[in-house]
Amino acid sequence: MLKSIKFLLIIAMLQVAATMLSAEVSFTVDYPHQVVQGNKFRITFSLRNAEGAGFTAPEVGGCATLYGPSKSSSYSSQWVNGVSSSSSSEEYTMVYRADKAGKYNVGAATVTVGGKRYSTRPFTIEILPPDRSAQSNARGSQSVQIDNVDTQSAGKQVSANDLFVRINMSKSNVYEQEAVVCTIKLYTKYQISQFMANIQPSYNGFLIEELPVSPNLNEVERVNGENYMVAELKKCILFPQQSGKLTITSGTYDVTVVQFENIRTMFGIVRQPVEKQLKVKSNTASVNILPLPTPKPASFSGAVGNFTMTTEIKPQVLKTYEAATYSCIIKGSGNIKYLKAPEIAFPAQFDVYDPQNNVNAKPNGGTVSGTASIDYTFVPQFVGKYEIPATEFTYFNPATKQYVTLSTQKYDLTVAKGSGSPTSAHKGIQQQNRDILHIKKGDLELKTAHDFMVEHFNYWLWYIVPILILAGVLFYYRKSLKARSDLKLMKTKRANKVAKKRLRVAQQFMRAGDSNKFYAETLKALWGYLSDKIGIPVSELNKENISAELVSYGADEDMVASVIDVLNKCEFAQYAPELGGTDMESIYSAASDVMDKLENTKRKKA
Prior knowledge:
The chain is an alpha+beta fold and 606 residues long. Helices cover 25% and strands 40% of the residues. It has four domains: 16-128, Immunoglobulins (Immunoglobulin-like), CATH 2.60.40; 149-290, Sandwich (Immunoglobulin-like); 300-421, Immunoglobulin-like, CATH 2.60.40; 487-599, Four Helix Bundle (Hemerythrin (Met), subunit A) (Up-down Bundle). It has helices spanning 2-22, 427-432, 457-485, 487-512, 515-534, 543-553, 557-575, 577-580, 584-599; strands spanning 26-30, 34-36, 40-48, 53-56, 63-80, 83-98, 102-106, 110-113, 116-119, 123-128, 163-169, 173-175, 180-188, 191-199, 206-211, 219-223, 226-240, 244-248, 252-265, 268-281, 285-290, 300-314, 318-319, 324-334, 350-352, 356-364, 367-380, 384-388, 392-397, 402-407, 411-416. The strands form eight sheets. Strands 22, 24, 25, 26, 27, 29 and 30 form a seven-stranded mixed beta sheet that branches. Strands 11, 13, 15, 16 and 17 form a five-stranded antiparallel beta sheet that branches. α5 (515-534) runs antiparallel to α7 (557-575). It is extended, with a radius of gyration of 35 Å.
């Protein structure tokens, strides 16, 4: 029995050792991007799945080394379904004091593992000067500083210089359809415990491409000589759809800041956090949109950016009645998601189907880059030689301020005989290819007619039926026009359908674990549904108006409270996910429930 236990222990140790040897070794660095002059900070170098020796830390310009390296080690292993896995780590911590403002390039740290040298990647640290108002003013008080809790005392007035939301545009002048980046940032000298948006900025006149953001106070920026903790609330790429001056309207936000109150106890003075609620309004931001130069080429259909184009036909051997694909592949950056398919002049002897546009693109810097593959499916109907002529695709390049025309290649095709027969649309063409038919012989069964067609009921029926059908069509068309002219009614009818479609998109993000996109899509579905259902314009959409209109619509107090509660939870979870405490499934279920209940609510008569 004892021998069996020893044998199993040896096997387990060998498996753990083999797992460690097979694990990938990595050597990384964790550092602050910005620090304030005079403050202490740490840089941690982490070695994974190996034991190192001969660690060497890099020199950090503008800083004094206070302590280090301090080494710590950890090891973990687990067995899951008979499979073992393990990991180990060594961390080397250095403590520095920032002495001189500026940007400093820091070299690589090195460590030796089994005779092999590993290095971290070089990085840059920015040391920011202290606030210019750090010294006491004439009345003996100090301005608020992000690194000094003594300046954040309770009861102090929070000024517009201590907390603000700013909308920044990457460019002030762009062409129609040219990408411009819009960033909304929160700047604060206080810690934030809660943040909720009441009214979001509107982007009238733009198509929007959302960018992922992490709304945490994990960066420091210097504005007008003052240091602020900064969180990105929203970032998107905008494509203007019209020329002239377009403005991003301001948004309003509920913010809870944390100040500190000194409490005298028997153990001394203790700082106690005190929350203070504020309302903050962002600025507005405008962009001057330039019209595209004229005259525009005939082959220009709205593409703006920088593109290349290739074409191909598959399969290369064509046969009658067998489907083939003509692909037009456009690569580049710009409004690639909104390109229109070029018109290809296929021979009349081909059956051609509507083109399918497959776009694989993602944000890249200040624009969107990727590939758009436009596939035209066609079916040759007859044997022979055919030609697909070259076609042109024109785009406007804002960098050179010129139109660029790309041309596809011409294809000379040979179609071989395949199995099948022409479609009904092409049988007339097939008849033209036949030779002269034989003369018909024999009794043709001819007879002389002596009656008049006007004497038959069927003759008049050919007039009466079309008139009745035309009258019915006109009646239905006028009724349809009247219904469509009532935009408010049309929006109300399709509100639930549009909202459910957006919730399905949000559900996909929920299943993928992408919380940022899930909450953004759920909020978009809720705001859009309420705007369409109860008839509030987007520019006037806020919680106060929603509450009032829901009561007028016929909703009870519990339903109004449920709607506002779901909006608050979504916004709080989106802008402060680490403080939300609400899972995505409950948010999704609550959003669906309030929509279903409102759909079943009978509207009050005006």
